[in-house]
């Protein structure tokens, strides 16, 4: 109150700003002056002014005000203030091999939040409250949803080391069709679109050796040598034991975050939205940029901290990593 009166130079103006009566303000200032044993304000024809003796009090009060604002900001960021459940629907590959290891950091920062992660290739119906947020590779059809583009997913063919040792690596498109491929077949995997785009003239029998409906099985089919398959370029950056194939069969998809506009008003969901946007930031993670970067160049392009090796837990105890 003292600061508001001093800045505005008027009890009347301060009362309007604070929504308090002039009499209440005068009484509060009288109490403050008695408590401090110091005259803070003097009246003049053009309003009120801070006394010379109170100038240091005014500067200290401003510091107290800034500290109070800092306290409120800290309160808004404090974990105990964010409680409840946040439901996230996400494609199985991005959920398993990208978001999950980073969600651990979020969960430790906000231990009172319960994270419900649904990894599925089927798009969640946000209007029917199947999830609070959805990270997906297909644009929502409903105009009632808010959509944020998180980045771009670049997919290229990879082969496992055992496959390369047994069958070699194709160098040209002509050579590529003589090999074996594995395909992920699910709602947002676009397997049929892949095949029609490049291989519609080739019978699947003898060429497609395996179909998988989830990204984890799809990855292991590639890593263990079942055939060549498409993975995100960042796979090698997070520890995948696969080799990129330098044949121009690349595909790219936008990664979008969708949510109901009202969800943005809920603090715990708003915080989750901000965190997810940062987790897919093309500025921090170059493999999510619009432009394509070859997997072999990603280590040089990435300048952030160490990345979690999402595949290390599958190696087994006592097993030596493949070289």
Give an overview of the whole structure.
The protein is of the alpha/beta class and 323 residues long. It has a domain at 2-77: Arc Repressor Mutant, subunit A (Orthogonal Bundle). It is 36% helix and 20% strand. It contains 11 helices and 11 strands. It has helices at residues 2-8, 11-18, 22-36, 55-77, 92-109, 161-167, 173-176, 191-198, 215-223, 267-279, 298-301; strands at 41-44, 47-50, 84-90, 113-119, 133-136, 146-160, 181-184, 208-212, 229-232, 242-244, 251-259. The strands form 3 sheets. Strands 3, 4, 5, 6, 9, 10 and 11 form a 7-stranded mixed sheet that branches. Strand 3 (84-90), helix 5 (92-109) and strand 4 form a beta-alpha-beta unit. The longest helix is centred in the N-terminal third of the chain and has 23 residues, at 55-77. The protein is elongated and about 95 Å long. The model is unreliable at 314-323 (pLDDT under 50).
Low-confidence runs: 314-323
Q: Quote the CATH topology of the domain at 2-77.
A: Arc Repressor Mutant, subunit A
The tally of beta strands, per DSSP, is 11
- Number of DSSP helical runs: 11
């Amino acid at each position: 109150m003292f600061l508001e009166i001093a800045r505005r130079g008027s009890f009347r103006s301060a009362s309007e700003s604070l929504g308090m009566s002039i009499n209440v303000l005068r009484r509060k200032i009288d109490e403050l002056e008695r408590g401090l044993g110091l005259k803070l304000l003097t009246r003049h024809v053009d309003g009120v002014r801070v006394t010379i003796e109170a100038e240091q009090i005014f500067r200290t009060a401003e510091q107290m005000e800034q500290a109070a604002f800092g306290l409120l900001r800290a309160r808004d960021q404090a974990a105990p203030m964010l409680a409840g459940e946040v439901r996230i629907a996400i494609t199985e590959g991005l959920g398993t091999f990208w978001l999950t290891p980073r969600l651990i950091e979020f969960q430790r920062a906000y231990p009172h939040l319960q994270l419900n992660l649904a990894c599925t290739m089927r798009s969640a119906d946000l209007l029917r409250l199947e999830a609070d947020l959805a990270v997906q590779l297909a644009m929502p059809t409903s105009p009632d949803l808010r959509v944020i583009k998180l980045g771009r997913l670049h997919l290229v063919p990879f082969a496992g080391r055992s496959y390369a040792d047994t069958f070699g690596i194709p160098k040209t498109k002509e050579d590529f069709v003589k090999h074996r491929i594995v395909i992920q077949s699910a709602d947002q995997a676009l397997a049929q679109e892949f095949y029609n785009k490049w291989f519609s003239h080739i019978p699947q029998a003898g060429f497609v050796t395996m179909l998988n409906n989830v990204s984890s099985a799809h990855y292991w089919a590639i890593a263990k040598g079942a055939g060549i398959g498409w993975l995100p370029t960042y796979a090698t950056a997070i520890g995948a034991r696969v080799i990129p194939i330098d044949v121009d069969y690349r595909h790219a998809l936008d990664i979008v975050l969708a949510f109901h506009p009202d969800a943005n008003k809920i603090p715990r969901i708003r915080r989750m939205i901000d965190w997810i946007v940062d987790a897919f930031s093309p500025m921090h993670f170059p493999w999510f940029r619009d432009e394509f970067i070859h997997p072999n160049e990603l280590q040089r392009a990435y300048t952030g901290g160490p990345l979690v090796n999402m595949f290390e837990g599958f190696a087994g105890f006592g097993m030596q990593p493949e070289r």
